[in-house]
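Field: COMPLEX_INPUT
Field: COMPONENT_COUNT = two
Field: RESIDUE_TOTAL = 667
Field: MODE = joint
Values follow.
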Amino acid sequence: MDGLHDLFTVGFATALTYQNLLWALIGCTLGTAIGVLPGVGPAVTVALLLPVTQSIDPTGALIMLAGVYYGAMFGGSTTSILLNTPGEAGSIVSALEGNKMAKAGRGGPALSTAAIGSFVAGTIATLLLTLLAPIIANLTLKLGPVEMFALMVLTFAAVSAVLGNSPLKGVISLLIGLAIGLIGIEQQSGQARFTFGFAPLLDGIDIVVIAMGLFAIGETLYTATYENHLKAGVESLAGRFWMNKEEWKRSWKPWLRGTAIGFPFGTIPAGGTEMPTFLSYSAERKLAPPEVKEEFGKGAIEGVAGPEAANNAAVTGTLIPLLTLGIPTSATAAIMLAAFQQYNIAPGPLLFDTNPELVWGLIASLYIGNVMLLVLNLPLVGLWVQLLKVPRPLLYGGIVVLATMGAYALRQNWFDLLLLYIVGLMGFLMRRYEFPVVPLVVGLIVGPMAEKFFRRAMSINQGDLTVFLKHPVSLILLLITLAILIVPPLLKRRQALLKVS
Amino acid sequence: MLKRVTGEQWIALGVILIGFIMIWQITGIPKSTGYAGIGPRFFPSVIAFGLVIAGATLLIQSRPSKHPETEEKTQDPDHPLDYEIAHPHWRMFSIASAALILHMSLIGFIGFTLAGTLLCFGICLALETSHKIRDLILSFLLVLGLFHLFKWLGLNLPALISGGFL
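Field: COMPLEX_OUTPUT
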């Protein structure tokens, strides 16, 4: 129960200061807004805020960035329910049932169950985080470079094999990310690698440029070329808004089940929120009594309540590996790790000892943020719906201007704008040919760390490669890696079945 | 359908090419400064060979015969996107690209606000706006607002005249 003690003594004392409350509110509001806006995700927003946060103290900055991250999950559901265009990947499933509910004039209860479910799941998941994080941090203290490297290999395998349609494309995306991560001066030997004689490349390619290029420029080019003629109508919010007794009764179990599915998925490096939301959806469908089962596909409230809860629980779950191991399991978490690095703070087991105010303040802010988001998203939902009416050309114009600004502000060099465009072209091609981008971002951030741990492991063990199989923990991790490469084809078949039926 | 596969094969070739460029560049990295033979060349070599192998695998896998599922997709009325994918608007792609390239070449000369306005408006054109004049004015106001917001936040952006309003 150490966690609870620290939470109340250190955490809330930090999070409840006037300044940090303000950062949490800004983060949650921004997060909801970008979650609502189609085409902008939490990853690009967090990346965009990186240059701005340089002048803020780390605790406030990370509280704000975390608010953006889970605020986007709340806001994303509004878009998927009313527009049938998922605002972010985690709300694909809730678009299935939620949009049908909105079409049938039950948009209000759909939004309510999504928001309240997100709140319930977020709060339970934060409580789990509070209790588990210090324990896991203590365990991970015992991990040496051999185990850390094995863990990173596991992360690489998981993010590239589990996500997307084709594990091969995931692997290519990962390798490209790892390759980009190599550019610049190598830390241990001081050698410049892959700079092709360009001085601006000595510092490496900044994560802001990569994130903006992939998510903002690539997305805009893709929309202009392919998707601009797809018209999606916004469903209006007619009828009653709050859930009735029946709907509460049908929602609470899916919320809890969604949380139970989502949280563990967030903690393992299986990348993101897509898997748990799909699993939660299929679980609700299976568990539904026959008369409800018929409603699935036509607007069953369980199909919104479960996945939305799973989505939020997973996001909170990703904070466990991020804070205790320093390993990001999603694109947004990877960019948040870059935010930590910007302050020369290395997340990991020691973080709980060296920066208790930061960690516990951040965790306490999650409880507060969840309440803020419930208020922001339920009574004020009409306000966010207005955002859906922003003309699409101006929306994308604004996104692109912000992206170029983020890239340019780093060094005031047009070379960064050229890099941004090149990465944008890459993002465009990846989107067009269905390469997942999360492996690239994770590879880019974790790659240099993995190389460092690998070389440290080798130097301790005189270059003996079998050391990875001799240490029991790393052996187990590598065996799990192997399993991850074999099991997903089976799971994929399951998902395909779900889609067909 | 043949076109789709060709695109994927181009990407596969590109991936292989990146792998070879890396192998060529690795020879320029000084050899062993590391322990136990693990110098700054080791990791890049693994990644470079990985890229070549993965690219080659993609090339082999993306033969037309291996893609029966793409045909199903076009007949699916629930997926209007597949129709759009078959009919890309390259003119719009070019307008968006031109706006970005113009922006990067002009930002040092005409400042953030004016270059940004051109960029924002260019993207509006690429997305086929039906209110050109409104969007041009709003682009300018938006970028001007951002310029001053970020100046206030302490982020330095180039102005037309150093320290000026635009």
